[in-house]
Write a structure and sequence with these properties.
With about 130 residues, the protein is of the alpha+beta class. It is built from two helices and ten strands; from the N terminus they run H-H-E-E-E-E-E-E-E-E-E-E.
């Protein structure tokens, strides 16, 4: 019984009451600041803007050429993204042809042929990045 009372006195003497109250306030403020600083929603990464420029109408697999119906202008050097049911890939436009003639710019409502890196399917969408 005496030992317990002595221990309590030693503990109380070593840490003053005011110090513990101040320490508790500091800890509460720190916890509140941490909670406030953490965002409630994770930041969504900014994706590059892409616009629909065409639809694949046919694919010649033996020569890897896609026939694309153009909806918006496509230029040589543009980066295109082909999106299908089970595949997505990006490719830079190196050359385009209409009726076996090289062109630099494909305009709306034209049908072009373009060599592609991977195989595509009919109705795959083509986006410009």
């Amino acid at each position: 019984m005496v030992k317990k009372a002595v221990k309590k006195r030693i503990v109380k003497k070593s840490i003053p009451k005011k110090a513990t109250k101040v320490a508790k306030k500091v800890v509460k403020k720190a916890v509140v600041k941490k909670i406030v600083k953490k965002p409630l929603v994770k930041k969504i990464p900014v994706l590059p803007k892409k616009s629909l420029v065409g639809v694949v109408t046919h694919f010649y697999d033996h020569i890897h050429v896609a026939v694309i119906e153009v909806m918006n202008e496509i230029k040589i050097g543009d980066m295109l993204e082909f999106v299908g049911q089970d595949h997505i890939f990006k490719q830079k436009v190196v050359s385009m042809q209409i009726e076996h003639q090289q062109i630099g710019i494909a305009k709306k409502k034209q049908v072009i042929g373009m060599k592609v890196v991977q195989s595509v399917r009919d109705k795959d969408l083509v986006y410009k990045l």
